[in-house]
Every structure is written in C-alpha cells, then in structure tokens.
Amino acid sequence: MDYFGFIIGAAILTYTFFFWLSRLREIQDNKKWVPTLDPDAQVSLPEKLPLISVLVPAHNEEKIIEFCIQSILDQDYENFELICIDDRSTDQTAVLVKKLFEGRHNCRLLSIKKRQEGWTGKCHALNVGSKAAKGEWLAFIDADSSLHPRALTQCLNEALKRRINLITLTPKFILGTFWEKALQPTLASMAAILFPLSQVNDPESPVATANGMFFMISKMAYDRIGGHENVKGLAVEDIGIGKRIKAARLGILFANGQNILFTRMYSNCADVMKGWTRILSAAMNYRLSTVIKYLPMHILVSLPCFVAALFLYVNPAVQIIPNSWFFLPIACLLAMTIGPFKFFDQLGLPRRYSIYIVFGNLTLILVHLIILKKILCKDALQWRGETYCTTRYQPKCLDPSSTEQ
C-alpha cells in the first residue's frame, strides 16, 4: 500500500480545501467592510456642491474614448469639470474629444507633446491635468472605463458621509472574448488576495491600495501626499497613492462598484498577459520572496494538481478509511465550486463564467513565472511601447512628508 502517496494526496486536498475556505472567509468579510454602492440610493449632499474635477488620461484611445467621455458628460452631478489629457496620441483621440466637448463650458482638452524625464506616461499626464484642475475633489478615471450617471453623486456622498479623503471602486468587468472571460476575473482575484479589501478599509490595518480605473480624492489630501509627484516612476501608481493616503491616516474606502463602474481592460490574450504582469508585479512590490510565496500556492490549487492528488489519494484511502475516504474529495469539490461562485457574485458576473477559472489559474501560474524571470533578470518596465529605466514598482518611503521613493 502506498502510504506516502496517500499522505501527499491528502495534504494537497486538505490545502486546497482550506485555500478556498480562506477565500470564502474573505468574501464574507467583504460583506461587512466593503459597501456596494447603489446608484439609486438616497444621498445627502451639501447645498453648495463642491466642484469635482474629472481627469481622463488618453493615449491612442480612439476606439474607446467616446464611451468613457460620454458617460462622464451624462453625470447627474451638477458641479463638475472634465479635463481630458491627450498624451502624445498619434490617432484620432484628440479629434474625437474636441467634437464631444463642443459647446461645453466645463470641458477642456490638454495636449502633451513630450513626456517629462523620470515620469511614466500616465503619471505625467495626470500631474499635468491635476495642476490645471480647479476642483475641491479630483476624480481620476481610465479611458477604458465608464460610469453610471449617478456615480459621482454616490461616490461623493459616501466619502462625505464616512469623512474619508479617498474613495475607489472595484469595477464590473465587461467581458467579450473567451480570453477575457477565462483570464480577467482570475487575475483580478490575485489582486484581491494580495490586498484584501476588508483590510484596506480597516483603518488599523496597514494594507492599502487603490484602483486607477477610478478613484476620487480630495484636493487637500492629494496635495498633502505630494500628488503624482511622489509616485511618478511607478508602474502602477494607484497602489502608491493608496498607500500614501493610508500612511497619512487621511481615510480610504474601497467600495464595490459593480453597479456604477464598468471597464473593459483588454480584449485579447496578449494584452491581458502583459497588463496583468505589470499590475501584479507592482502588487507584489517586485519582491522575489513574494513571488516565491504565491507561486506554489497557485500550483497546488490548480486543476492538474488536484487530479494528481486524487490519483495518489483514492486507492490507498479506500483501504485505510473505507467508510469515509470520500469526505475529503467531496469537501474539496464543494469548496472549489462555491468559492468561485461567490467571488463572481461579488464581481457582478454570471456564475457560469466561473468554469473558466481552470484556465485562469494556469495563466496566473505563467504570469508568476514571467514576473520571476523579470525580477531575476532585472528587466526594465516596458509599457505602451516605452521602456522605463527602472525596476521599482512601489514607493519605498511612505512618509507623506517625504518625497523619497
């Protein structure tokens, strides 16, 4: 009898069960700590509405920019300005934005001809936009995202009610192709593992992040942390912004925005892989130890590993514990089914998409291996056709009074 195989198989199955049990506990914690914003909820805003400056960075976004801009123009909030920053686009982005802005007094198009040295393109664009903004609140939104007409109203109401200075949202992913359905939710789940939202919202927890697809921050808090100046070289600047806000104890809320924020990040496999490699590199702070910690975890909970564990476990288990050998595999299967169902519910996605998590997990393993290679080879950041001479993905210094990175 293969006792060794039995022990290995049982250990993998037990690990898988507790992995999904932990995910279910995190989802349950989110129900307590992470509010889901309802666009139809009643609000209580001051009589004199503060000006909100909405900033949209755009680099060759002609295929998607109209949808984003129009969703902002359709906001029911009555006191906002919209600033689009055309960041060296070579397509029709600027032409389309100018057409949408015609006759509107509260809209401006800024054009950038050259990126400032030491800055990533997006950070530089948002820094230019923020200097031109007049609002008491700044709302940053990516060009591949769009808002429900009551998004600004609900976000400001939530921020004022909770007396916080930054509110950011999880989106509802718009998934069209097979690869989007197979990869996007699973790769997003890794970010949720690295930054549990319940801990982000807990003022006593050091865990912090923000979502650059959309976040709204008071101008006072933005200035106090040095704005984008102090995250100018980061691959994913939103994480740095969130960390600095929480380090300064200025108040941060990560809300579930499945009803008011919609995004289609990438539409093909190559873009998904490149984009999430960049994002997760930043989320893991480009640390070898972090990658080594999470890579085995995802290997152990993958479908091939589960099948191998069953192969090792079942035959000896039938002989060793004939009347109860099936309890562990059934518990695993239930956890592996219920966990993804609940996570997809949280994202506002159909449960049937959860079957794709099998492919997504294998891709996540590949992404970890790519990141591992980048760390070992000290690869410079490459994004949107530009190479940045840095391997630093998050600020080292989180003292808001310091400009050190």
Helix content: 40-55%
Number of DSSP helices?
14
Number of strands: 12
Which second-level CATH architecture of one domain applies? Answer: Alpha-Beta Complex
Low-confidence stretches at least 5 residues in length (pLDDT < 50)? 394-405
Write down the Rg: 23 Å
Mind telling me the CATH class of one domain?
Answer: Alpha Beta
What would you say this structure looks like, in words?
With 405 residues, this protein is of the alpha/beta class. The termini are far apart. The chain has a 7-stranded mixed β-sheet with strand order 3-2-1-4-8-6-9, with helices on both faces. The chain has a 3-stranded mixed β-sheet with strand order 5-10-7. Helix 6 runs parallel beside helix 10, helix 6 crosses helix 14 and helix 11 packs antiparallel against helix 14 (357-377). It has a domain at 38-185 and 194-265: Spore Coat Polysaccharide Biosynthesis Protein SpsA, Chain A, CATH 3.90.550. The protein is 49% helix and 14% strand.
